[in-house]
């Protein structure tokens, strides 16, 4: 599966980074960087947690 | 498919707004959506129904976020009350100076302020937590940030409270608050850059308007939303922080032992006591919620606090447990209209919780005093009878 970011919606709240620090991080400017977009079974639960906690629904899994 | 169950509950009765949790439990057991004829609304009660509706702006329009026509009329054209695609542009303007990105530089200053204030209160040995902390701190932070001075600074508290109150139905509380909300509206329609402190975010918004980055006469609208939406709710949340950490010394001890739990503690405070009781939407079509049909045009009441205590989503929902870190709580809403000021609210509340954990071993709190309110559920007075210092 793949993590998709709706960039205009992202406001940099950073809750996804706390939930999935190995998959994404906020850079020095506070802009979200997806370190891995394609995720396998091993990371599915973590990716799902990151998607769930985004307060503005800017992330989804496809 | 079925018709939603019906309840004779009055969501805005004094006894309900003072302690809505027994009513939330009753409604939640009836169904995910319950029709309340006394309020003319369909209430969303269970976690999945609340979150689902907040995400689905196409079925649940924000054109009717308030529970009386006058307030919905007054809010027309704001990001709060609009739907995409118009909303997307208005929201971007509103959050440009309010997103965590924009606020990063403020963190140290807000933490230092909270630390100094909490240290001073703790040294007194006893204090009244609402005026001295829950109100004083956000008022100072927001006034400094937006640049409120003089007349506006003096009126922030009553203006902010009234702006939330009038979102309720046209009951006595709304009627009494309308003139005060009108004062805020009037001030915001006449405010100019010169009325706001130099270097403030308020000034920056007027600069953006002068440059043509945002449409003419929108700066006042934005200032109105910062004050109307951001003051009363944050004060409620910080009052709840003190009350809940005071009432649950074992939970404060957990945060003291592991300060990394500060964000989790704030999430749990917000989950446990939602600062906002009810918020409106309008069904744009017949919508099926958990098997029941909500008819097109229906006024919806989103009950964040009911969803936050749904045992289908949170185990042991009526216990206050910071370790559960309920980051997906509903108290900031969710989705395109998720609280635009939540980044600032987190900065403020994390700073206060962190300062309490550093300076206080335990707080002995007296009984809290509450006053009925239509929308914001907050504590009016909270005596801290004794501070057991670190």
UniProtKB/TrEMBL annotation, chain A:
Key words, A-Z: 3Fe-4S, Electron transport, Iron, Iron-sulfur, Metal-binding, Transport
MF-aspect GO terms: 3 iron, 4 sulfur cluster binding; metal ion binding
Matches recorded under InterPro entries: Fe-S_cluster_ET
Domain of life, per lineage: Bacteria
Cofactor: [3Fe-4S] cluster
Any single Pfam family the record assigns to this protein: Fer4_15
Protein name: Ferredoxin
Automatic annotation (TrEMBL), chain B:
Superkingdom of origin organism: Bacteria
InterPro entries: Cyt_P450, Cyt_P450_B, Cyt_P450_CS, Cyt_P450_sf
Keyword field: Heme, Iron, Metal-binding, Monooxygenase, Oxidoreductase
This protein's record includes keyword Heme: yes
Alphabetized Gene3D superfamilies for the sequence: Cytochrome P450
Gene Ontology MF: a single term: iron ion binding
Any Pfam family matching the protein: p450
Protein family according to the UniProt entry: Belongs to the cytochrome P450 family.
PANTHER family on file: CYTOCHROME P450 YJIB-RELATED, P450, PUTATIVE (EUROFUNG)-RELATED
Protein name stated in the entry: Cytochrome P450
Organism (species): Streptomyces tagetis
């Amino acid at each position: 599966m793949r993590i998709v970011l709706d960039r205009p919606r992202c406001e940099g709240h950073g809750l996804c980074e706390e939930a999935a620090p190995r998959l994404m991080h906020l850079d020095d400017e506070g802009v979200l960087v997806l370190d891995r977009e394609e995720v396998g079974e091993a990371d599915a639960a973590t990716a799902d947690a990151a998607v769930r906690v985004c307060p503005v629904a800017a992330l989804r899994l496809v | 498919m079925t018709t939603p169950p019906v309840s004779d509950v009055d969501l805005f009765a004094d006894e309900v707004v003072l302690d809505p949790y027994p009513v939330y439990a009753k409604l939640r057991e009836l169904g995910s959506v319950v029709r309340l004829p006394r309020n003319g609304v369909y209430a969303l009660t269970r976690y999945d129904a609340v979150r689902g509706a907040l995400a689905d702006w196409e079925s649940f329009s924000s054109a009717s976020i308030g529970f009386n026509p006058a307030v919905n009329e007054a809010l027309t054209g704001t990001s709060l009350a609009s739907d995409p695609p118009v909303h997307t542009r208005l929201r971007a303007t509103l959050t440009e100076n309010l997103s965590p990105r924009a606020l990063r530089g403020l963190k140290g200053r807000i933490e230092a302020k909270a630390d100094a204030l909490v240290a001073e209160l703790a040294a007194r040995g006893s204090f009244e937590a609402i005026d001295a902390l829950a109100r004083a701190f956000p008022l100072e932070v927001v006034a400094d940030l937006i640049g409120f001075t003089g007349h506006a600074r003096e009126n922030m508290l009553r203006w902010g409270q009234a702006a939330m109150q009038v979102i309720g139905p046209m009951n006595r509380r709304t009627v009494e608050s309308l003139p005060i909300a009108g004062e805020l509206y009037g001030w915001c329609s006449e405010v100019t850059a010169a009325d706001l402190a130099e270097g403030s975010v308020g000034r920056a918004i007027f600069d953006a308007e002068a440059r043509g980055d945002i449409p003419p006469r929108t700066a006042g609208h934005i200032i109105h939303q910062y004050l109307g939406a951001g003051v009363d709710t944050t004060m409620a949340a910080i009052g709840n922080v003190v009350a809940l950490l005071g009432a649950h010394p074992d939970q404060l001890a957990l945060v003291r032992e592991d300060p990394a739990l500060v964000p989790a503690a704030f999430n749990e405070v917000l989950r446990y006591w939602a600062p906002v009781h009810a918020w409106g939407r309008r069904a744009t079509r017949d919508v099926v919620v958990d098997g029941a049909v909500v008819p097109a045009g229906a006024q919806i009441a989103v009950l964040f606090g009911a969803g936050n205590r749904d045992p289908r989503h949170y185990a042991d929902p009526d216990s206050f447990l910071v370790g559960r870190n309920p980051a997906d709580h509903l108290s900031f809403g969710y989705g395109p209209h998720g609280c635009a000021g939540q980044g600032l609210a987190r900065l403020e509340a994390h700073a206060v919780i962190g300062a309490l954990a550093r300076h206080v071993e335990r707080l002995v709190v007296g009984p809290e005093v509450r006053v009925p309110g239509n929308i914001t559920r907050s504590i009016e007075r909270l005596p801290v009878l004794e501070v057991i210092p670190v």
